[in-house]
Amino acid sequence: MADSSTPRAAWSGKWAFILAAAASAVGLGNMWRFPYLAAKYGGGTFLITYLLLVFTFGVSLLLLETALGRKTGLSAIGAFKAFGKQYSFIGILASAVPFIITPYYCIIGGWVARYTAGYVVAEVDAMADGGGFFTGFITSPVDSYIWMAIFMALVFIIVGLGVKGGIEKANLVMMPALIVMAVIIAIYTLIQPGALEGAAYYLLPDFSKFSPELVISALGQMFYSLSLAMGIMITYGSYLNKKDSLTSSVVRIGGFDVGVSFLAGLMIVPAAFVAMGSGEAVATQAGPSLMFITLPSVFTGMGSVAAIIGFVFFLLVLFAALTSAISLTETLVSIVQDGLKCARKKAFAIVIAFVLIVGSIINAGYNILDFIEPLGAGSSLLDFADFFSNSVLMPIVALLTCIFVGWIIKPKTLIDEVRISAPFKPAGAWSVMIKYVAPVLVIIILVAYVAAQFGFFSM
Ligand code: PHE
Q: What is each CA distance from 362 to 111, 178, 287, 384, 402, in whole angstroms?
């Protein structure tokens, strides 16, 4: 069904696809939100819940999106529209998500780049001053923009080199490097005095922390972390060859993502535990403070190796952020190219202009526009972009997608697509998941997130 007048990109093979999807999935979400959630919700209790959710719900949705992309050979808007004009709005909503996330993701990518550079030029102590450095940097009217632009430039260069020449090669270097660095840092933190107690806090389940909030937080984290409900996996599926197995691919993508989240927790929770004295204290460090304020202090405490450990840590986070931002940008290019039926070059130029302009506006929320507090006192434009995309739009898109596949085009349409390349035994269970279980879970997340935001209960 693809339009042959505008040649589409394609993966060089199944492994390139798995690596790219994993590279999209593994990102800032794994690095800073997962460890904090695990610390908050009883360590092992959260780990077990998360694992179960990813390998039931998560891989089911990954399979749905990649199969839809491969079947139609189109990115989100076209993929839904292929079944009737009246459904293109689902694709439009899904496509809106990366348009919101990409600009602000690049801002945070800029923070990570700034810290990585800080360890190179020996600002180890300056960055560990308890928050002053961080606040000064993000509110700066010049520096924060420069680092955002540096991060964006790296992303644009790689996407500009194309799917095979840029994205695949970058993933092939950055993903293995990221994992090696994560293992090194995890081992190093675990041999610090007192760290094993922190590791026990992270690994052993405290079932008293099991709660509906835990499940809802785990579900929300899973969506974001697997890059679901925003058209990315539809686009990536559309670049895939009909003979490559989808089922084994999605299980590997899920495994990759969970594995890196687990490692991130193993690096961060014990280290922060030592610095702060208890797991409960770590659990209070929501948002950027764990990564940009607490960890630099932990590194400084390591003495002579502080600069090296800090550098390796932020470099690995930078790689994770870059590979995700690349997938977001590639998705935007694909949406614009399909939408305007134009050449890739033109679509890319439009995307660059959009990301730069919107990124600058959101970044201004920390400095010249800081009087705008969309979610109440102290909140920023970035918080709003994050809340609106993750907690509102993504659940809505996921719900509509499940209804669309479960009740309109019917699961069988995609089951047949999956079966072109490999047997699919749990097809019955998958249908039940898409028709009944997933929609109910997604409605729960949506209601809970919005209610929590407006203060009806706390999460
Ligand atoms: N999954 C990425 C992460 O965990 C974030 C992301 C969201 C990437 C959306 C691409 C698209 O950080």
A: 14, 28, 17, 9, 32
